[in-house]
């Protein structure tokens, strides 16, 4: 336990000094700042209060860029350590592989999650100061979604790092995973749907295996409890589960998925040559 | 202390270590030599439990270095062939070492001083920003401070100036009794006064092993 926290702490400290972390924090902080400057909180569109609208835009952008940030920085750092023999030296000390691996995950989780979460907190505080009404249920949902998003992509990133032999290869795989989940999968499913050979419900169920899709739908679910914006998709989703269940699913499923990937990654890490 | 039996390691089809058997005992101070690619580093990595052998086994004090990683590594000091570009600053690196392996910071400082390395002025610097020689000095100081029974040095003096080498060999002479010391080296003359056993490897096999 002591070593686990030590590894997490050192990873955290290392990240805080790294350039990617600075850029990362600036991007998400800057996004929020930009929204305020653009006056999104003041506008009233489609009847949403300003702050809700801001949060919705923030989460929609975050769903797209956070995964690639997590994948790239994590894969780079974890397989980079192996490429340049840092891992070889660090593991010559009596520390167990599980403490090393899970310590790294915890450290990474904190570095990745805190900036996106804090940017949202700042938005809420700032918005409240400007007199906007704080949409607490939305805030809670999005905090949960950010947590789940971070978990799932961190799990994928650690799995990729365990499998690939070099960080270059890792970056390629990471980028492919991101693009695949972001759009290829959708395009493939849409074309399947248009061919009309497979039941739409099945296709939507498959779409919901993709955590990125789950986040997309969950992000608007509070605005639109009947999910009318989603058209026929909503019909199937709400047919499968109630809105509350769907919200819970959208947080639990990606989190569990991330843990599962992380565990598989750990088993590969343990069983393969370390350096 | 170290038993290596019929050890074979392949990478794909290439055999890096071919059915190697050798024992290292207390008070063996070994120069491990051989051409580039002979398999010296591979042998060391197997002793540290980094590689899964294709065949045969390594036992360190009777323990398998993969399954008993912690107990085995408590007893081993290791200086790698090239100092890696660790991004932690020295303060954090030393904390890691202190906490993971019961090494005392004051001992690291003591040996750093003996190696003529100024640690205090560099504590907030990243390890990779030190000069090549300074990195090596620090890794050597750490390996000595760890006070292990088994010390493994994979060409640790490549970047050291002559004075630093002399310091290093002097310190090793002070502590070498009752230990296994393994030096990978391409220059026997340098370590000749320090070792009592010379092993040559070629193409993944031990081709000669003499005690002196
Ligand atoms: N991780 C690896 N993957 C593939 N091949 C490897 C790996 N590590 C070592 N080899 C191969 O194994 C052989 C032995 O390498 P090793 O590093 O043990 O040599 P060495 O005796 O330490 O050489 P040097 O004096 O150059 O350090 C080489 O042919 C090398 O290419
Ligand atoms: Mg070598």
Helix content of chain B: 25-40%
Question: Secondary-structure element sequence of chain A?
Answer: HHHHHHHHHHH
How many distinct folded domains of chain A? Answer: 1
Nearest-integer average pLDDT of chain B = 94
Overall residue-averaged pLDDT value of chain A: 87
The gross shape of chain B turns out to be globular
Strand content of chain A: under 5%
Strand coverage percent of chain B: 25-35%
* Straight-line N-to-C gap of chain A: 24 Å
Total helical elements of chain A: 11
Q: What is the number of domains of chain B?
A: 1
Q: Over all CA atoms, what is the radius of gyration of chain A?
A: 20 Å
Descriptors for this entry?
heterodimer; A: 275 residues; mainly alpha; B: 212 residues; alpha/beta; Rossmann fold; globular; binds magnesium ion
Describe this protein's structure.
The complex is a heterodimer of chains A (275) and B (212). With 275 residues, chain A is mostly helical. The radius of gyration of chain A is 20 Å and the shape is globular. Chain A has helices at residues 2-17, 19-37, 50-83, 86-90, 97-129, 136-163, 167-195, 200-207, 211-221, 232-240, 243-271. Chain A has 11 helices and no strands. Chain A has one domain (2-271). By secondary structure, chain B is of the alpha/beta class. Chain B contains 7 helices and 9 strands, in the order E-E-E-H-E-H-E-H-H-H-E-H-E-H-E-E. In chain B, the strands form 2 sheets. A 6-stranded mixed sheet of chain B has the order 5-6-7-3-8-9, with helices on both faces. In chain B, strands 2-1-4 form a 3-stranded antiparallel sheet. The longest helix of chain B has 14 residues, at 132-145. Chain B is globular, with a radius of gyration of 17 Å. The model of chain B has no long low-confidence stretch (mean pLDDT 94). Classes of the chains: A mainly alpha (275), B alpha/beta (212). The interface between A and B is medium-sized, with 26 and 31 residues. The structure holds adenosine-5'-triphosphate and magnesium ion. Magnesium ion binds next to helix 1 of chain B. Magnesium ion is lined by residues 40-41, 81, 154 of chain B.
């Amino acid at each position: 336990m002591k070593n686990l926290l030590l590894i997490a702490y050192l990873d955290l400290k290392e990240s805080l000094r790294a350039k990617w972390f600075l850029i990362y924090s600036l991007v998400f902080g800057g996004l929020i700042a930009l929204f305020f400057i653009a006056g999104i909180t003041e506008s009233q569109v489609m009847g949403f209060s300003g702050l809700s609208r801001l949060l919705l835009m923030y989460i929609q952008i975050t769903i797209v860029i956070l995964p690639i940030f997590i994948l790239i920085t994590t894969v780079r750092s974890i397989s980079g350590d192996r490429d340049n023999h840092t891992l070889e030296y660090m593991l010559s000390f009596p520390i167990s592989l599980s403490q090393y691996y899970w310590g790294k995950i915890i450290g990474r989780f904190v570095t990745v999650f805190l900036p996106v979460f804090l940017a949202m907190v700042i938005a809420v505080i700032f918005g409240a100061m400007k007199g906007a009404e704080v949409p607490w249920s939305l805030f809670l949902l999005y905090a949960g979604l950010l947590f789940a998003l971070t978990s799932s992509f961190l799990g994928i990133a650690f799995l990729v790092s365990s499998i690939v032999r070099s960080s270059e290869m890792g970056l390629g795989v990471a980028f492919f995973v991101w693009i695949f989940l972001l759009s290829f999968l959708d395009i493939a499913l849409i074309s399947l749907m248009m061919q009309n050979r497979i039941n739409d419900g099945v296709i939507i169920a498959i779409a919901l295996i993709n955590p990125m899709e789950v986040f997309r739908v969950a992000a608007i679910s509070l605005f639109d409890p009947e999910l009318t914006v989603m058209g026929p998709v909503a019909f199937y989703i709400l047919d499968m589960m109630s809105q509350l269940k769907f919200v819970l699913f959208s947080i639990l499923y990606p989190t569990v998925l991330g843990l599962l990937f992380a565990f598989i990654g750990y088993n590969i890490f343990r069983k393969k040559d370390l350096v | 202390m170290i038993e290596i039996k019929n050890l074979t390691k392949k990478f794909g089809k290439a055999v890096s270590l071919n059915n190697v058997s050798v024992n290292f005992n207390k008070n063996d101070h070994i120069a491990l030599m051989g051409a580039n690619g002979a398999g010296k580093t591979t042998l060391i990595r197997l002793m540290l439990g980094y590689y899964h052998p294709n065949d045969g086994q390594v036992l360190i004090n009777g323990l398998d270095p993969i399954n008993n990683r912690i107990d085995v590594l408590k007893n081993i000091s290791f200086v790698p062939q090239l100092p890696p570009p660790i991004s932690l600053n020295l303060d954090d690196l030393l904390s890691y070492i202190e906490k993971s392996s019961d090494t005392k910071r004051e001992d690291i400082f003591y040996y750093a001083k003996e190696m003529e390395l100024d640690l205090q002025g560099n504590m907030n610097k990243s390890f990779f920003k030190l000069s090549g020689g300074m990195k090596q000095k620090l890794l050597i100081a750490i390996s000595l401070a760890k006070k292990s029974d088994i010390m493994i040095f994979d060409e640790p003096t490549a970047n050291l100036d002559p004075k630093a080498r002399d310091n290093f060999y002097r310190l090793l002479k002070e502590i070498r009794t009752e230990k296994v010391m393994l030096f990978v080296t391409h220059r026997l003359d340098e370590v000749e006064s320090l070792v009592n056993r010379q092993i040559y490897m070629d193409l993944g096999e031990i081709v000669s092993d003499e005690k002196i």
